[in-house]
Amino acid sequence: MKLARMGPVGEEIPVVLDDGNVYDASDLTTTYDGEFLRCGGVAAVRAALAGGTLPILNSAGQRLGAPIAIPSKIVCVGLNYIDHARESAMDVPAEPILFLKAPTTIAGPDDPIQMPRGGTKLDWEVELAVVIGRRTLYLESVDDARDCIAGVAIAHDVSERAFQLERGGQWDKGKSCPTFNPIGPFLDVSDGAVEADRTLTLSVNGTEKQRATTADMIRSPLYLVWYISQFMTLEPGDVVNTGTPSGVALGEAEPSWLTAGDVVELSITGLGTQRQRVVQYDTAH
User: Fold this and answer.
1) Long-range CB contacts (< 8 A, 24+ apart) of 159-168?
2) What range defines the domain where residue 258 resides?
3) pTM of the entire predicted model
């Protein structure tokens, strides 16, 4: 089952995508957020879809928002693909590298990426995002993580490398600007979605930059959720970005940083596509 949110920014309604149709789920919930997941909302929506009680929505021309409303936090994993660690001139970490992105980075899958004021080294990163389905802390085993995950989606971990690497050593600075975490177009809440082997791709202006499979990860999404739970509480609706493969601008001999007018397209097998145009912050409103 695929959950999505449609409508203008701040006015999105919850919908279900199934068999080529868009179904309105707003009689069951006002939005897809942590409270919806905490209260068993996925099961209720699944039952309504199976029972044929969800009305079909005319979605022509509707904007897709992020499939999950703004979470309490976004936890990111750095250097989770060997080739990406190498292109970044960094060692493969002995333990996962964790950093946080501001929740206000969340954007729709096709919303413009805003170049931040003072930014000069804007970079792309396609990632598999995991959305947490229930409160998670101190999991005993990796297998326990399976029941804590609501679903998966595409995430674009946009980065401003000058802020990240040249402004005092805190990665969060280069990761938390507005629009720096487009997610969607939908959240796949099917059984086994988190363990499916998927291909990730990203292109800039039609030129492919990244291609890998989730099998290339150093540590699996289940392992990452277990690991993160040893250090912090994950709440329903929280997002975990599981790392990007090689092919980012930072790893190029002569980096081709994103500039206004560039178009970035991302896809992950079974999770749809994203398409974003880069705009200057001052002209984004």
Assistant:
1) 159/122, 159/123, 159/124, 159/125, 159/248, 159/250, 160/116, 160/119, 160/121, 160/122, 160/123, 161/121, 161/122, 161/123, 161/249, 161/250, 161/255, 161/257, 162/119, 162/120, 162/121, 163/116, 163/118, 163/119
2) 68-283
3) 0.95
